[in-house]
Amino acid sequence: MHKNPALARGWGDGSLNLHSGEMSAIVAEQLRAFYVENRQSLYTYAVSLAGRREAAEDAMHQVFQRLLSRDRLPEELRPYVFRCVRNAVLDQRRRAAIRQGQAAGGPEPADTRTPDAILQARELDAKLWQLSPNEREAIVLKIYDGFTFQEIADLRGQPLPTVASWYRRGLDKLRELMAPTHE
Predict the structure, then answer these.
(1) Which of 164, 175, 87 is nearest to 131 (CA)?
(2) Distance between CA 95 and CA 88 in Å, rounded?
(3) For residue 18, what pLDDT is reported?
C-alpha cells in the first residue's frame, strides 16, 4: 500500500487507487490538486464530447489512471490532460462504433435542480448537438471551461483563427437556433 493513506484511498469515491511503486508522492499530490481544481470543467468537456455521462467518466478515469503511473507530469498539465481526455473519448467512440457498427449515442440531459433550469439546459444541450463537433467543442472549452482561443488552438493543433471561427460560427448558429420562432 502507498505510504500516504489519504492518497491510497483515492480521491472522493476511491476509484483512483495508488499502489506501491507506481508514482512518487509529489506527483500524486500534484495530480490530486489538479483533479480537485479541474474535475468539473474536465467532466463538462468530456460529456460534451462523449454525449453520455458514463463514457465521460470512463474517459476521465482512464486518463487519470495513466497519469498515476507516470514518474513526472508535463509542465503544461491543464492542456495536456484536456487533450488526453479528448483522445480517450475519441478512442472510446471509435471502439464503440467498431463493436456496434454504428456511432456512439446522443447526449444525456443536464442534471440541474429547478424545472425551468432543466428545460433550459435540455434545450441548450439539444441545440449544442446541432452544431458541428468543432463548433461545439470550441464553445464548451471557451465558455464552460474558460480556455483561451490560444489554449484551444494548442489543444486541437489548429491555427488560432480557425478556432475563433468555429467559436463565432457556433455562437451565431446557437443564437439562431435559440431565437423564439414567430408562427
Answers:
(1) 175
(2) 11
(3) 45
Residues 135, 8: Cα–Cα separation, whole Å:
40
Domain 109-183, CATH number (from 1.10.287.180, 1.10.10.10, 1.10.1240.10, 3.20.20.140): 1.10.10.10
Name which of 114, 145, 139 is nearest 127 in CA terms: 139
CA distance linking residue 71 with residue 27, whole number of Å = 7
| DSSP string for 128-169 | HTTS-HHHHHHHIIIIIS---HHHHHHHHT--HHHHHHHHHH
- Burial class from Cβ neighbours inside 10 Å (0-12, 13-18, 19+) for residue 162 reads middle
- Phi, then psi, of 102 in degrees rounded to 5: -155, 170
- The mean pLDDT of 138-143, rounded to a whole number, is 88
CA distance 111 to 108: 9
Instruction: Write out pLDDT tens, residues 158-171.
Output: 999 999 999 999 99
pLDDT in tens, 2-47: 333 333 334 444 444 544 444 467 778 888 899 999 989 899 888 8
